[in-house]
Amino acid sequence: MDGKTLARIGAIVFVAVAITATAIEMHRKDDRPIDFATRVRPVASQDPLAAELLRCSEIGEAGPRDPACLRAWAENRRRFLGQPAPAVTSAPSAPTMLFPSAPASADPIHKDSAPTNLAAPATQADPAQPEIR
Known about the structure:
This protein is 38% helix and 0% strand. By secondary structure, the protein is mostly helical.
């Protein structure tokens, strides 16, 4: 056999295999396995944070204004970055003073003092300037 004949036989076999594979694929039923990435799990089986994030993504433009969504996104960001949970601090029972070493007489607001006029001081209007042409 010469080279030309062998090349022709090889091409014919290749085309026959390609046609057979195409025919088998066309007659095959659509029994594709479910892709796990696109399969939807019920929200109840997810954690509450995922359910809240899903709700926030569904409400659209109102999401950035919703305080619950802002908290959920902050918690998601904290989990993603691997930061520890913030420590819960108790609110102080009494209000704290800014300057605890200052004497009480320096406090500008006393219950015994008379109320002061809190109106803004009157400002004098500028006189009208003649128009220069």
